[in-house]
Amino acid sequence: MTSLKNTSLFFVMLFAINIVKGQEEMQLLDYVNPFIGTSNFGATNPGAIAPRGMASVSPFNVAGAENKLEKDSRWLSNPYVHENTFLTGFSHVNMSGVGCPELGVIVSIPTTGELETNHLKYGTTYSEETAEAGYYSAQLDKYKVKAEATASTRVGVSRYSFPAGKSNILLNLGLGLTNEQGAMVHVVSPTEIEGMRMVGSFCYNNPEAAYPVYFVAKFSKPADEFGVWKTPYKYNGLESQWMHYNGETRIKKGFTREVVGDSIGAYMTYNFKKPQQVEMKIGISYVSLENAKENLEKEVGNSNFESVYANTRKAWNEKLQVVEIEGGNKDEKTIFYTALFHTQIHPNILNDINGEYPEVGTGKIGRTEGTRYTTFSLWDTYRNYHQLMSLLYPEEQLEMANSMLDMYKENGWLPKWELNSTETFTMVGDPAAIVFADTYLRGLTDFDVQTAYEAMLKSALNTVSNPLRPGLIQYIEKGYIGVDSHVKGPVSVTQEYNIADYAIAQMANELGKNEDYQKFSERSTSYKNLYNPETGFLQPKNTDGTWFSEFDPLAGTNFASNPGYIEGNAWQYLFMVPHDIEGLKEEMGGNSKFEARLDELFEKDQFDMANEPDFAYGYLYNFIPGKEYKASAKINELIHQYYKNAPEGIPGNDDTGTMSAWVIYSMMGFYPITPAKPVYTIVAPTFEKVKLNLDPRFYNKTHLIIEKIGNGNAIKSMELKGEEINNYTIQQDPLLLGENLIIQTYKTNENE
Amino acid sequence: MTSLKNTSLFFVMLFAINIVKGQEEMQLLDYVNPFIGTSNFGATNPGAIAPRGMASVSPFNVAGAENKLEKDSRWLSNPYVHENTFLTGFSHVNMSGVGCPELGVIVSIPTTGELETNHLKYGTTYSEETAEAGYYSAQLDKYKVKAEATASTRVGVSRYSFPAGKSNILLNLGLGLTNEQGAMVHVVSPTEIEGMRMVGSFCYNNPEAAYPVYFVAKFSKPADEFGVWKTPYKYNGLESQWMHYNGETRIKKGFTREVVGDSIGAYMTYNFKKPQQVEMKIGISYVSLENAKENLEKEVGNSNFESVYANTRKAWNEKLQVVEIEGGNKDEKTIFYTALFHTQIHPNILNDINGEYPEVGTGKIGRTEGTRYTTFSLWDTYRNYHQLMSLLYPEEQLEMANSMLDMYKENGWLPKWELNSTETFTMVGDPAAIVFADTYLRGLTDFDVQTAYEAMLKSALNTVSNPLRPGLIQYIEKGYIGVDSHVKGPVSVTQEYNIADYAIAQMANELGKNEDYQKFSERSTSYKNLYNPETGFLQPKNTDGTWFSEFDPLAGTNFASNPGYIEGNAWQYLFMVPHDIEGLKEEMGGNSKFEARLDELFEKDQFDMANEPDFAYGYLYNFIPGKEYKASAKINELIHQYYKNAPEGIPGNDDTGTMSAWVIYSMMGFYPITPAKPVYTIVAPTFEKVKLNLDPRFYNKTHLIIEKIGNGNAIKSMELKGEEINNYTIQQDPLLLGENLIIQTYKTNENE
Known about the structure:
The structure is a homodimer. In chain A, the strands form nine sheets. In chain A, strands 5-6-7-8-17-12-11-10-15 form a nine-stranded antiparallel beta sheet. Chain A has a six-stranded mixed beta sheet with strand order 18-30-31-35-32-33. Chain A has a five-stranded antiparallel beta sheet with strand order 4-9-16-13-14, with no helix packed on it. By secondary structure, the first copy, chain A, is of the alpha+beta class. Chain A has two domains: about 30-320, Beta-galactosidase, Chain A, domain 5; about 320-745, alpha-1,2-mannosidases domains (Glycosyl hydrolase family fold, Up-down Bundle), CATH 1.20.1610. The two termini of chain A are about 40 Å apart. Chain A is globular, with a radius of gyration of 26 Å. Chains A and B meet through strand 14 and strand 15 of A and strand 14 and strand 15 of B.
C-alpha cells in the first residue's frame, strides 16, 4: 500500500489515456440504466447528476392524485416513481435510494400558454422518456415541450425546447418532497432568479435542525415578463370577509424585491415567434447565495448544455472504468454498471467550489481544502459500501473518513446518519466506528487515526448523554439492552454495539492498545446473552435477566414495529453476527445445526434481501466446511431473483448504494463478509472476467483479475497467482497481491 | 416669500436658541399625551417615535381573546387599543391614525422563566403605563419586567429591566397587525439578530405588492442562549401520522443560519444572578439588511437608551415650538400639542440614512439627497393637513411635494394613498393635484412645477387605463359619473373630481394657462348635474340622465356601503363643495335656504365629525352674512364635544393627522376652508393668545399672533395689524403680513 501523499495527477492521466483509447471504455456508459431502482421502492431517481453531485435534476412525479404513489398519501421517499405518470416538474436537490422523504425541492417546469402556478393544474403526462448517466429527457405532453437535463457537480442544467407562442418557466419553491416549508425568492433580472428553500427533518426526525439550501438560476434568454407568486395562509374568522384574496395565490408581476413565505415561486415568461430553446442553469449551495453564484460561475460559467453534458459524461466514464468486465449478457452488465453508478451518488459533495460548507452542530461555515462529503447512511453502508469504496475509490474513501472525522471535531460526536451537516439520528448502532476500523485495516491509514480512535472510544464509553449509543450503561453492565429499557429494538441494538465493539477491538489491536483490545473483544460477543438455546433465537430479554414473555419470532415481519428488533424479526436478526460466525455456530450447536437453521431461514421465506441485516446471509454457507457450494448457488440465485435491468431491479431501497454494492461484489464473486476485518469470502462470479483497476497510489498492484472458468454457479477450485487455494475466505492483502484469481466453476441445482 | 435656497442652518440655530431659553419651551412636551386617540378608533398608538420616524416602538395589545378589540375578530387598524389589557409585545414599524390594519410587525417582548413562543401564552397584562413624546413604558405584570421604549428616526430602542433569574427577549416575526405573512430571521451572534418581514395589502388592497421590511436587532448584553422558532403548516392526511411534530412549534436552539417561513421568531435567553437591564436597538430599512445595519450604526451607534431618548425629546421639542399658546386650560393645551404631535408622525421618512429607498412601481432602489416621505393618505390630508404643514413646517411640505413628484417620475402617476412606495388605491378622487396647487398658491413654489402640472393634467385628462380617475370619460362627457358605471360612490367621486379640477384651474391660472383655467373651472362645478332641486340633495344619477330611483338620503350612514357615496350618505356629502360655496348656495336658493339646510344637517344628527367630507361644514356659516357667529359657536362646540384629553379624545381615525390638523386650526381660530385657494376663514379661537413662529426662509414675517379678547365663542370684531377687518374669510398673504390679529369675542348660546 502506498500513501496518499502523491497528487491525484497520476490517476487523472491514467483515465485520460483510457478515454482516448475510445470506443470500448466510452461504451461503459451504455450500461448505465438510471431507471433501475425507480420502482419497487428502490428509491433511486433517473435524474441527471454528476458523480457525487450536490445538484441533480430529477423528474418530479410524486405529487397529485393522478399518481399511483402520491407523496402525501403514503410513505414515499423519492421524487420520482417509474409507474407514476403525472409530472409536476424537475427538482434540483435530490436523494437517491433512501428510505425517507427529503429534499426534492427547487422544482422547475416549462409550460406554455397562460401562467398557471398550481402544480396540480400545470402538471402533465410525459412521454419519450430517456435517461443516461448525467442526462434525462422527456416530452411534456400537455405543452409539447421537450425537457432535457444534465448537471455538473453543483449545477443543474436544463434545456427546454418550446414551440412558438407564450411559454413559461416556473420555479416552484412551495412544492417539494421534503416536509419542511419556507422559502425566499428574488428575481434579480430577466435572466436571473435567486433564492433559498428550507429543508430538513429527514425521516421525520430532528425537524429543529431544518436548514437552508440556496440557489441561483440563470436563463439563456431574457424573459419578456417575470414575476413571483405567493400562496398565503387562509385566514379564518371575521377578517377573511374583507380579504377577497384570502388564501389565494397572488401573482406579483415584475416584482424584483425579495419575497419569503411557505408557498412561493417565481416565473419567467417568453413570447416566442418561433420554436425556441431556453437553457436554465441552477447553481446550488448549502452555504449562501453568493456561493451558489460562485459555484455556477466557476463550474459552468458560459458553457452551454452540450458542453456541460459532455464533461459529465466524461466524469462518469472515468468512474465506471475502475472495473472492466467480460462475459455476462447485456442485462447483467447493465445491472453491474448501473450499480456502480448508484454507488457514486452518495455520499455526495457538500462543500462549495470555494471549500465552504456548513459545519455540523456549530452553525458555522467551515472550509475544506479537500472534499466534504455528506449523506452518510452508515447503518447501511458500514456493511459493504465503504469496503467497496476502499477497494475501487480509495482516495474518496479516505476523504469520507476525513469528512466523518471533521464532523466529530465540529460536533463532538461521530455521525450516525448524517445529512447536509445535520445528524438525523436515523437507525441504530454505532456504525462510524466500524467504517474507521475497516478503512484502516484495509490499509487506508492516511487519516487522523488518533482522533478517530478517540472518537470511537468516546461513543463506546461515554455513558452521559451519548446521542449515538442509547442504553449504553445497561449494555456495558449486563451485556445486553433490556426490552423494558425504552431503547427501541434492544436485540438489534445489542448486536450492532457488538459489531462496533469488535471493530474498536480490531483497531485497538492494530494500534497496540492491548487493554482496549481485550475489553472490546469481550464486549463484542455479548449478544450471546440474548441467545435462547430453547428457541434457537436471539430474543428480547428483560433487564432482570428473564426472557421477554411475549416473544414471537415472526413479530417484526415487513418492517412492522416490534419489541425486539429494528426493521426486522427474530429470524432476520438471527445471523447478524458477522464478526463472530464461529461463535454463533458454537451457540447453535455446530456446523450442521447452523446449516439447518440457515436452510430453515430461506425455506421459511424469512430471509429479507431488501434490508441490510440479512443480506450477507447467503455467504454464511462459506463458513460451513463442505457446504460452500450453497453460498455460491444462493448468491447467484439472489442476484438473478432480485436484481434486474428494469425499474423494479433493486430489491428495496438502494440505501445510498448499499444494495448496489452488494450486487457489485456478488457479481464479481467476493464479499467483505466481516466489517472491520480485511477479508473477502469468495463465490462463483457472474462474469467470465472481471478486471479491477486499482489505484496505484494506494495499492501495490494496478489490478486484480478474477476469471471464471466454466459457466457454473458453484466453485470447483480456485487458483490465486497460479497457486491453488482452499480457503473460501481470504485476507485482502494476499488477494490483491495475487493479481489473478481463477475460479473453476460447476453447475449445482442447490437453491434453484 | 423667500425661496428654499438657504440651508436649514438658520432654523436650526433659531431652535437651538429657543431651547437654551429653557423651562418654558421644554414644558411643551408635557402637553403631549400619546394616549389621546388610542380609543374610540382614533387609531393612534402611544408608542415611542421620533418626529416622522420610520421606526417606532408601540405596545401591541390587539391579539388574544382577552382583549376587547381583537385584531382578527373585527376590523381593527391599530397595534394598540387603550381599553385592551393583554399585551403580546412591542411592534417596531407602525402606522398611526389610519383606517386599515397594516405593519405592526417585528414584535419583541421580554419574558422570564422557561421559553414560551406562543404569544397567546406569553402575553401578559401590564400596569404603570406611561407615555411621552418619544417614550413609552409599562410594567409587564406576569414577568415583573419594566419595559421602556424610545426611538430615533430609523431605530427603535428598548430597555428591559429584568429581575434575577432566567429571562428571555423574543422577536416574534409571525405575529403582526398586517395580514401579510412571511419572514426571514438569522441570529448573527449572541448580541445580534437580523431579519425581514413581508408586509403589505393595506386596506386589503393590492396584496400582490406586498414587500419586505428589514431589521437588525442589537442587544447590550450577549445572550447565554439563543435560538429560532418556527411553527409550520399542519400536514393533513396520512403523512401526518409520522410527524410527531406536525404543526407544532420547533425550537432551533443555537441555530445561526437563516430561517424563513410564515410563522417564525428568534429569542435571546439570559440567566441573571441579579436584576439586570438589557437594551435592545432595532434598526429598520425598507431597502436591505445592510441599510438597516447602517441606519442603526449611524443614527444610534453605541449611544444608550437615555441618550437616544434625550435626542428624540429635543427633536420633539423643536417641532412643538412652532406654536406658542397662552390661556386655555391644561386639557385644552394638551389637546392642542398632542394634535401637533400627531401631525408629525405621517407622512414619515422612508429613505435610509444613506438616502436609499424603494421606488414606486419600478422595483428599483432609488436615492434621494433630501427626504423621501411616505404614507400619503391624500383623500384625507388634502383638506387641511398640507395647508397646516405649509404654514408651520414649509420645508417639510416642500419635501413632501417633491416626494410625491418623485413618485410620479418613478411610476408615471401621482400617488393617491401611497404607503412605503406602494399605491394602495385606497379611497377616491385625485387628491395629489389639490396638494400641489394648494402648496404652490400658498407661496411654496420651490418644486418642479412644470412636472407637477404635467402630472396633474395627466390624471385629469388621460382616459386610457388611468388608475387615479376611474370613470373619467363619463365625467368629462356628462359632468358626472353614472350610478350604473361600476365606479364606487359615483356622487362622491364626481365631487372629488370637481375639487381636483378646481385646483388644476387655480394652478393653470397662476401659470398663465388660460385655456386650461377655463376648461377646468368649468369642469369643477359639474356637481350641479347631480343636484336635485326636488330633494335638495346631490344624488346618484343613471348614465342616461335619469335619477337613480332607489335614492335614500340616509343610505350610507355609519360607513355602510351604498350606491351613491363613499363612507357617507347624501346628507354628509351635500355641502362638500368647498371650492364653490356660493354656487351651492345658489343651487339651494340663496343664503337663508342654505342656512336652513345646514341647520337641518346638524339637527338631524347627520353631520359626521369623524370623517373628512363633513368636518369643515361648521365653518360654512361664515359664508352666510350675519350668521358668522354660528360658525364660531359650532366650531367651539365641536372642539369640546369631540376632542378630549383622553384616549377617546379624537372623534374617529386621526387619518394620519387630518383630524388633528382640524383641531389645531380650529383652536387657533382659523381654517383653510377651500383647498387650493390660499384663504383662511376665521372663528373665535380657544386660546387667549396664539403665536405662530413662521419659518423666515419662507415667510416675510417671523410670526403671526392671534389674540382673543373676552372669553366668548363668537366674534364681535376683528383687528389685523391695528386695522379693523370685516371679512371672516381672508387671503393668507394679508393675514400673515398682518402679524397680529386681535379678535373681540362674545358669548353666544347658539349651538350649545
